[in-house]
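Supplementary notes for students who missed Thursday's class. We covered one full example, reproduced here. Read the sequence, then the structure, then the short commentary at the end.
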Amino acid sequence: MGTPYDKDVVAWAEEQVALLRAGRLSAIDIEHIAEEIEDVGKSQLRELGSRVSVLLAHLLKWRYQPERRGKSWINTIRTQRTEALYLLGEAPSLRRRFEEARWLDLVWLKARNLAETETGMDFDSFPEACPWPMTSVLEEGFLPE
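Structure (token representation):
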């Protein structure tokens, strides 16, 4: 066998690709390949959660600190929304996460924590659950008033 998975994952991956392309299926590291494929999905989900939590935190800041609104907040909202929509376009199956209460609760918790840190406001100043439908949150131009 070539490079061990736990010694150099990049060299291992290159070797596995070469084996797959050469049709040498009996020589591939099936277990680690399966783990890597599974991790791709997890990575995409983590990125979506991160993008949406930052977006929600900035929407909270926009809603609860109107006197501090500025171009940088608009830019962050626009960027995070665009990146979230890009991820959803690349992996439409991620949309089903918006129907999972547990996932949404975690994303909202992260957003509240970030908003607390960035505003100096008390965590409990923000709603326990997201007050906006995700369709609105992802809609271009949406800003809570």
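Commentary. The chain has a mean pLDDT of 96. The radius of gyration is 20 Å. If anything here is unclear, bring it to office hours.
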